[in-house]
């Protein structure tokens, strides 16, 4: 499993990264998915969810789009869960 981590980025840097994605991938469902994934990695879950929500409206419900939508929601779920606190050996011995 990939190690998913949130990244810190300025608003200007985020907008620049999104524009670069759009320039490289053009206007496609994969582009929307990639933008949503970037937003979720930056902790902007509401914005990522908005992008995912509009994918079906923009691109229809083909199996490829539905798969991207499902993966997008899964990414948001994984990234929005706070990391578990490490268990110390003292606490582990008590369990």
Short descriptors:
Pentatricopeptide repeat protein
The beta-strand count equals 0
Oligomer: single chain
Global shape: flat
Count the domains.
1
The biggest beta sheet is recorded as: none
Figure out the total of helices: 5
> DSSP strand (E) fraction?
under 5%
Cα gyration radius (Å): 16 Å
Q: Round the mean pLDDT to the nearest integer and report it.
A: 82
How far apart are the termini? 27 Å
pLDDT < 50 runs, ≥5 residues: 91-95
Explain this structure.
It comes from Vreelandella gomseomensis. This is Pentatricopeptide repeat protein. Helices cover 71% and strands 0% of the residues. By secondary structure, it is mainly α. The chain has one domain. Helix 2 packs antiparallel against helix 3. The longest helix has 18 residues, at 63-80. The protein is flat.
Quick recap:
With 95 residues, the protein is mainly α.
